Amino acid sequence: MKVAHAIENVKALGVLRSRGVSDPRKPLETLRTVKETQIFGPQATLIRHNTRIAPDSPGLADERGELTYSQIDKQTTAIARGLQAAGITEGSVIGVLARDHRGLILAMVAASKLGVRVALMNTGFAKPQFAEVCQREKVTAMLHDSEFLGLLDALPADLPRFLTWVDEGIELPEGAQTLDDLITSNSSAELPKPSKPGGFIILTSGTTGLPKGATRAKLSPLATAQFLDRIPFPSKGAQVVVSPIFHSTGFASWLVGMAMGNKIVMRRRFDAEATLKLVADNKAEMLVAVPTMLHRMTELDPAIRAKYDTSSLKVILLAGSALSPELTIKATQAFGPVLYNLYGSTECSVASVANPEELAMAPGTVGRAPITCEVRLYDDNDKQVSAINTTARIFIRSGTPFEGYTDGRHKQIIDGFMSSGDVGHFDEHGLLMVDGRDDDMIVSGGENVFPQEVENLLLERQDIFDAAVVGVDDPEFGKRLRAFIVPEPGHTPDGEEIKAYVKNNLARYKVPREVVFLDDLPRNPTGKLLRRVLVEYEVTS
Prior knowledge:
By secondary structure, the chain is of the alpha/beta class. It has 17 helices and 25 strands. It folds into 2 domains: 2-315, ANL, N-terminal domain (Rossmann fold, 3-Layer(aba) Sandwich); 441-535, GMP Synthetase, Chain A, domain 3 (2-Layer Sandwich). The model has no long low-confidence stretch (mean pLDDT 90).
């Protein structure tokens, strides 16, 4: 087994060479970059690397314009000096509560230069969650957008804080400091190197309670190969990232994009038409999004989509929540065979990726594991399952596992494979299909129902824009199925007809007993459905 893993690592190095991440013509630069990764971690290392080889190349773009890699390098050093003067030193933990823009990137890179750990906060936090996570992660300073000033009331008044973005017309507290203030008032002369990387904490989605913190002190350069093995990232091109960068997919795609020398194009708030404009204006070869965002772009009037030339797109990378078969087909019709469906988790990183050919064979599949990764199925008795079309628990072996939750807990591990918390099966092509979350399973009248199957069926209807199915308490069946439907604009679906439709296509016990119509479904910023909100939803007759 160790020999096989060693061979895989050699192959991963080959992937990095073939994609141009490591240049055999510049062995000293490659060696220097690898060495710096062990000192700074990936954020500052990649900025420094690109500043040495292509200082004037654009590194990011947002509503405020573009910054070159050299500008990012200088500005982050000045910010790091300002943070250091405020008592934020190696080993500290800072929280960053920001949307996708330069302030978020500059904050993360500056912390990396100081050996300071970054806890990436969810922009959808309520005040009690925010306060509890900050206390658990031992946050000693907060860098945040002005729109979140109200949330900071939950933190100690003497906690240092800096503004990463200031909205127009906002009245700032007396003495408030911005990142721009730190840039203009501090030197950009190089700092002493930290003794070790500060690392970063990415929070889990928190769909079932308080988000857990998954920590990584450093990343192996081979982690990049897991993405590049099955996803054709552009090189020295433009990639639009609308998936939240505070979460694992957005964060990882930013890092891989920097490794490829790309310009990362961001926008603070997602808008379907504005995203198409970003792609067209930047001639972007890649778009990183979550399925709900792709859904909204696909549902735009074709006349609106036609206003923007998106023919430069070679990759639409999706992750964060389930990609339905129906959306796979519709999006491929709208944008061409450019969809790549990534399956993974905050804890396991990458598990598998489906390319356009595999999505054409099995719409909605998450494909196959990339280099240095492997997926296995285990039953409830922890025995491996290899039979085709047999649903079991999904376990992942990854070359970049996390180091455990910050609250001391860990995922179940069998034979070196970590639980994903999902269940799924392999089809006749060997492609992985995710059937749903293990804890989403509904036992109704003694029968097991995974809601995703019912939801995918409902989403095939022309009169349904979005759908969710949950189990609610029932005195006779233990649980009964309740469907929540968001109608397609201009349509008025009938609840009884929807039940009959499910009955005609699935087993009797998978038919919802109730159908509730809503204007929207509760989802977190990465598009994951908040099922517990729907379970607790009070239905009025």
